[in-house]
Prior knowledge:
The chain is of the alpha/beta class.
Amino acid sequence: xxxxxxxxxxxxxxxxxxxxxxxxxxxxxxxxxxxxxxxxxxxxxxxxxxxxxxxxxxxxxxxxxxxxxxxxxxxxxxxxxxxxxxxxxxxxxxxxxxxxxxxxxxxxxxxxxxxxxxxxxxxxxxxxxxxxxxxxxxxxxxxxxxxxxxxxxxxxxxxxxxxxxxxxxxxxxxxxxxxxxxxxxxxxxxxxxxxxxxxxxxxxxxxxxxxxxxxxxxxxxxxxxxxxxxxxxxxxxxxxxxxxxxxxxxxxxxxxxxxxxxxxxxxxxxxxxxxxxxxxxxxxxxxxxxxxxxxxxxxxxxxxxxxxxxxxxxxxxxxxxxxxxxxxxxxxxxxxxxxxxxxxxxxxxxxxxxxxxxxx
Length: 360
């Protein structure tokens, strides 16, 4: 992903056919320690992104109408933070800039300090979540790692769990390896062909503290497991709500006691309170492709990859729904047992006593 965030040097692509403007911007950015790549046309800019710069500063007049196509092309290849320079932008220009895929814009007459302040603001925001890289594998879903929910998942989850526990939590460093208990939830993005597994865990030295803070002092294994599954479900709801603000629809599966902390490609961190409670958190992304099965093979927890309709064409269950026992029984009555249904390739989730909040 190029140079890391967190206040240090970044790789920044400056794309403009105006040599004077391009060199001025490059000088400003290089003077603050960033690595600058210059491109004088849309074609060379597209070639330069193979180096995966962290930030792209592009002149809106670059290639005329090609600028909007360039921005869309950048987003399709790799998620960067894109700042557009525009001379005397009108409201229509600003609308077009954001519609083309830009993250921010700046008037070409703005001083050096304004450009640096906008980029520094971005580095501060990314530094909060620099250790959390959701896309652990190469998925056919460009741009997920640039969405608000993925950039700030640690603070989103910590805030929600803190409110649930009544004890403010702050995201901290990577979780340790000794996670003894875990609750997990699957978050499916059918349209993006991505499934996320999110887990809330406890290290061995935190079990008694968790029992005192949450379970009334008794570290009963079943109660601990149920509580962690419920917290995973709560966190999944927060992620779903945040994703909806990005225009991404997420379906939440059933909570399980699966331990995902040992999964390949998993990203971990912790959420800690002032009272000393420390939760281990983890997320891993996997591809999720549809497969066709017979209606009689449907099970609770499966996620539908396409709409299910009856013989007259009436919608029974919409794509993206997570099946419950009731919905499976209803479909069994409405469809022929040999009817083919598209579901997520992700393995069905096991039923849990803590399976709450699951809906069609």
